[in-house]
Specification:
By secondary structure, the chain is of the alpha/beta class. It is built from 16 helices and 14 strands. Helix 7 links the parallel strand 9 and strand 10. The longest helix is centred in the first third of the chain and has 21 residues. Bound molecules: zinc ion.
């Protein structure tokens, strides 16, 4: 099926034509690892995970290469180490692991490559050297700066003029800059800061050059899709384009630029002082990752998203309904088709319309609930599972989900199983008083019983 994307570079929806359909290439800017990821950081991860799944479905699993970097050298990390006394290595390792665990809990597949910036320093020094040689960069007082005036298309992605760009970047006016718009490729490090030997002295790379080098290393000078949050359009992505294009003799850097919209929490910009600063790590203590994922995907990726805890609770209830439908159809084996339903793929192929795809999931669930014919039930169950899979949803065992895997406090699974067993015996002995008492006791603890033919299933509310 033909895929269409809104391309930020062209400001219009375009037909997606990969450079090589046997090797579709995507790069997404990854985290700077100095603290837990917040829900705003998770949005692009989940959005581009759905895109990755759609590309794999469309072009074949072995024909898509997805790269998401880890920025493990940055002033934010250096500052955090100075504040906390923890070493930089300890901070970046711990934070990277937490990031991967949190994103895994949100159902995000690992990308094919997750390069770390500190493992690509020689490549950065090479690219900076090329830019200097070609007249696109210059050295000044241990810094190397990109000469913005040397790249005429600068500003094309963000559509900003020069004055807006300078204002937007909160450009540092420094005496070593020829022009306030010029940005740092390399900067000197003091002995206590991380640094690498270079032709310009001991120093470290600027953030923008990291992505230009890591994408080139794994995807080549020109590739298909570059993604990230809307806040990265300027200056980060504008600068990536300038660096990569100029380092590659004017070759096109990226064909399709995709950006997800802003995220607010509880109707306001997230901030620690407002108490609406949600880390994924903390949200996962309260909600299953899959409910957080569904809450993120119910809004189209380019729309601003007002993320609310009540929205996660709603998503959790909706997933309960999906898993109930699957569990109730447990008597038939899913008849899984070769591909997800056309309606779901069509929705996702239209600029990743996840709300529309999810609406189709609801339709399948309703049909499954009323299906009586075993063949029809098996087919609907298979379609629902495969449709869920392309969205990264409904992959758990219904019983595990409904029993509230990983819940904390209250009765254990074994306790509940024992009480349910006693109730079955009571019912068999026509001791309905005991049977009702056990049911009420369990209900008081949020455990719902569902009596089927000769069996009783249970779930946590
Ligand atoms: Zn980047």
């Amino acid at each position: 099926m033909t895929i269409h994307f809104y391309n930020t570079l062209k400001r219009t929806k375009e037909t997606f034509k990969p450079i090589d359909a046997t090797r579709v290439r995507m790069y997404v800017c990854g985290p700077t690892v100095y603290d837990y990821a917040h829900i705003g950081n998770a949005r692009p991860v989940v959005v581009f995970d759905v895109l990755y799944r759609l590309l794999r479905e469309t072009y074949g699993e072995d024909h898509v290469v997805y790269v998401r970097n880890i920025t493990d050298v940055d002033d934010k990390i250096i500052n955090r180490a100075a504040e906390s006394g923890e070493t930089i290595g300890a901070i970046t390792q711990r934070t990277e692991q937490a990031f991967l665990a949190d994103m895994g809990a949100l159902g995000a597949m690992p990308p094919d490559h997750q390069p770390r910036a500190t493992e690509h320093i020689p490549g950065m020094i090479t690219m900076i050297g090329k830019l200097i040689a070609a007249g696109h960069a210059y050295e000044a007082e241990g810094h190397v700066l990109f000469n913005v005036a040397s790249y005429r298309a600068y500003g094309e992605l963000s559509g900003r003029n020069r004055d807006e760009m300078i204002a937007g970047a909160r450009v540092e006016v420094a005496p070593y800059k020829n022009d306030p718009a010029d940005f740092v490729l390399w900067k000197p490090s003091t002995p206590d800061q991380p640094g690498w030997e270079s032709p310009w002295g001991r120093g470290r790379p600027g953030w923008h050059i990291e992505c230009s080098v890591m994408s080139e290393k794994h995807l080549g000078p020109t590739f298909d899709i570059h993604g990230g949050g809307q806040d990265l359009i300027f200056p980060h992505h504008e600068n990536e384009i300038a660096q990569s294009t100029c380092a590659h003799g004017g070759a096109k850097f990226v064909n399709y630029w995709l950006h997800n919209g802003y995220l607010m929490a509880e109707g306001e910009k997230m901030s620690k002082s407002l108490g609406n600063f949600y880390t994924v790590h903390d949200l996962l203590k309260e909600f299953p990752g899959e409910a957080i994922r569904l809450a993120l995907l119910k809004t189209h990726y380019r729309q601003p998203l007002d993320f609310r805890k009540v929205g996660i609770a709603d998503a959790k209830k909706e997933l309960d309904e999906f898993y109930l439908a699957l569990r109730n159809a447990g008597d038939v084996k899913a008849d899984v088709p070769d591909h997800p339903p056309v309606a779901v793929i069509a929705a996702l192929s239209d600029d990743l319309n996840t709300p529309k795809a999810i609406a189709h999931l609801f339709e399948l669930k309703t049909r499954l609930n009323v299906a009586r014919d075993a063949g029809e039930k098996a087919l609907l169950k298979g379609e629902l599972l495969l449709a869920g899979d392309v969205l990264g949803l409904l992959g758990q065992s219904p019983d595990v989900w409904l029993r509230g895997a990983g819940h904390v406090g209250g009765l254990s699974d074994a306790d509940i199983d024992a009480l349910v067993g006693q109730r079955i015996q009571a019912r068999a002995a026509k001791d309905f008083a005991t049977s009702d008492r056990i049911r009420d006791e369990l209900a008081a603890q949020g455990i719902i019983l569902e009596d089927g033919a000769g069996t009783t299933a249970w779930r946590r509310q």
